[in-house]
Write a structure and sequence with these properties.
The complex is a heterodimer. By secondary structure, chain A is mainly beta. Chain A has strands spanning 3-5, 10-14, 19-21, 24-26, 31-38, 44-50, 56-58, 64-68, 73-78, 87-95, 103-104, 108-113. The chains are: A mainly beta, B mainly beta.
Chain lengths: 114, 114
C-alpha cells in the first residue's frame, strides 16, 4: 500500500539556522510529490512540487526539496529560517493508484526560536 | 480573486444534530475534496468528486454525506451518525483529477460538538 511518513512530528530550530524536514514515501509505481504549509487555523498552501525532470525543486519562501528515488525520500530544506516560517508542513504524494487520492503525511510542526 | 470559500469558520453542534459545511470555489475546477484534520493525524479524505452529480467515498466517509449539484459547490453534511465529529474540516479543489495537479484549499471550518 502507498503511504507517506514524516519522521519528525516537531522540529524546533533557532532563527537563521538551517532546517530539514524529512519525508519518505512508499510506492511501487511512479509518484508525484508535494509539500504544503499550513499556518495556524488556516488551510494548506502549496510550497513546491516534483512532477518530473530535475530532482531538486525550488519553491516559495526560500524552500527547496530533493527527490531521491533510490531512498524514496523528498526532504524539505531551507538554509536560513525566519520566525514567519513557524507553521505545520505536510508532505503529500499522488500516483497511479488513484488519480483523485492525494495521500498526506501526518505533518511536521516547525517552531522557530529567536 | 479566485479561490475557495468555506463557511462558517467556526461551528458548534449539539449531540444528535446534523450540520452542513459550505464549500464554494470560483476557480472553475472539476475536482473537489473534503478532508478531516485531527491533531497528529494529518489529513484524512472523507469524500471527493471529479464531476458534477458524481462523488466517491474516501477513507472515512461513515457519518458524512455530500452533494455536487453545481460545479462550484460541494457541501458536506456531518450527520448524527458521526460519533466523533469535533475536528477541523478542509475543503479543496483541483483543476481535474490528473495526478500531477496540486490541490487548492479553503481556510477550513472548525466544528465542535457541545
Amino acid at each position: 500500500a502507498q503511504s507517506v511518513t514524516q519522521l519528525d512530528s516537531q522540529v524546533p530550530v533557532f532563527e537563521e539556522a538551517p532546517v530539514e524536514l524529512r519525508c519518505n514515501y512508499s510506492s511501487s509505481v511512479s509518484v508525484y510529490l508535494f509539500w504544503y504549509v499550513q499556518y495556524p487555523n488556516q488551510g494548506l498552501q502549496l510550497l513546491l512540487k516534483y512532477l518530473s525532470g530535475s530532482t531538486l525543486v525550488k519553491g516559495i519562501n526560500g524552500f527547496e526539496a530533493e527527490f531521491n528515488k533510490s531512498q524514496t525520500s523528498f526532504h524539505l530544506r531551507k538554509p536560513s529560517v525566519h520566525i514567519s516560517d513557524t507553521a505545520e508542513y505536510f508532505c503529500a504524494v499522488t500516483g497511479l493508484w488513484s488519480a483523485s487520492k492525494i495521500i498526506f503525511g501526518s505533518g511536521t510542526r516547525l517552531s522557530i526560536r529567536p | 480573486d479566485g479561490g475557495i470559500t468555506q463557511s462558517p469558520k467556526y461551528l458548534f453542534r449539539k449531540e444528535g444534530q446534523n450540520v452542513t459545511l459550505s464549500c464554494e470555489q470560483n476557480l472553475n475546477h472539476d475536482a473537489m475534496y473534503w478532508y478531516r484534520q485531527d491533531p497528529g493525524q494529518g489529513l484524512r479524505l472523507i469524500y471527493y468528486s471529479q464531476i458534477v452529480n458524481d462523488f466517491q467515498k474516501g477513507d472515512i466517509a461513515e457519518g458524512y454525506s455530500v452533494s455536487r449539484e453545481k460545479k462550484e459547490s460541494f457541501p458536506l453534511t456531518v450527520t448524527s451518525a458521526q460519533k466523533n465529529p469535533t475536528a477541523f474540516y478542509l475543503c479543496a479543489s483541483s483543476i481535474d483529477d490528473r495526478m500531477n495537479t496540486e490541490a487548492f484549499f479553503g481556510q477550513g471550518t472548525r466544528l465542535t460538538v457541545v
